[in-house]
Amino acid sequence: MNKNLRRVLTGCLVALTLVIGLIWSNVNQAYAQRLLNASDVTQNITNLIGPNEVMYYETIIEQRADLTITEPNDPYHLPVIPFYNGKRVIERWIGIDTAREVIRPESARNIVLSEVVTTPTTISFYDARSGLAYQSARSKSVSPQQPDSKNTIDGVKTSIWGTNAWIIKSEPTSISPNAYKVASHNLAQQPPFASDLKFDKVQVVREVDQKSGLLVSITLNALTPSGPVALYLETNAIPKAIPLSQLPNGWDKLSVSVSPDIPPNASGTTTGDNQKAVAVAKTIGFPVYLPAKAALEKVNPAFDRSDTIYNPHSSYTLPSPIAFDLYKSVTMGIGVHTIYLSSHPVDPTHPKAISIIQGPKADLIPHLTQGLPLWQRSKPAKFNVTNKEGSGWILQGGLLREAGDNPLIGLVFETDSTLIYLEGQNVDENALIELASSLQIANPK
User: Fold this and answer.
1) pLDDT at residue 86, rounded to an integer
2) Domains of the chain from N-terminus onward
3) Which of 48, 198, 306, 351 could pair covalently with 277 via S-S, beta carbons 3.0-4.6 A apart?
């Protein structure tokens, strides 16, 4: 009897322990979610500011980077590595149904990387890396914020604010093995580097200040066999209410001018053999170089089209100098673009094409050295141009894709007063160098 009673009591205790554990787990998750909901400044702004005030704070963004990536060696771009592995700072001003967010490199706070301005009726967006700026109507419907997963309180720690903060962890989430292994073409906008890690789950860890109830930090961790590795981290400074009069630029506009429409081609587009490109070149005031017909035929005997674009009277300007590239130089009237194509390529799945963009180096180089590169690597090359020894840079990677359909490669160099960029599709670097060696002035004075 005593043994049976003991078994019953033991079973009851085990069941009670499980029930208490389940109840505690549910209470923990509910309270954790309540803390997270209350920690969002935007969602709770009416409780945080008074009349004619806005909430202001900064956020430091860090993400894991591939430290083996090096700066391209050529001199024709703005250094990109500080944009790749450097920290970013977000400045935030939040009001009632209004907000402004500006992102800058921590090492160069005079540069605006992006900006978003929200009013009750509009959203304005600016991205310096692409040079895009636009405004659109704001939707009136706002979906309630949903929890990203089950969250639980996992302890308390002293935060960077110097106060105690709850540690709240999300339920680990399974991910695709390639989720963080797809690199961007643009080194300035890479995802967190994780291709050297082995993991199939990630977890979000937040710190919520116990005193104010506001979010201190949020970290995305890769759960590896050797422990969590931080892929991405946002750390907030202590938010403070400031007078509305201290808000920069008001609520209703970006701090940059909205990009104008791209102007029409001033010279139109010519179609035909190389003689048409020569005819356009003769109307241009700076030296223009074109390849010899024999050199073009050696690259591709099927070339039968040459299109030339030039906008000498363009007033188009970019809102961001870091978005400048050689293609935009044509849109802005600084350079001329000639492309050689085949109407009936020998291999339709891998057609060959040659692009030449050129212009006065005194105009192009200062712009290029303010712009982020379209490439990720460069190496020196030597060759003769117009019967004189010259040198340049082979450009690869980034938007100059090296794998998949129709790979691209570039060659940039100077000759006399002109900067020349050759780009080949399904063409190797030796063919580009041969083309460069065949260039002759098409509009001698």
Assistant:
1) 86
2) 22-139+147-246 (2.50.20.10), 274-441 (no CATH)
3) 306
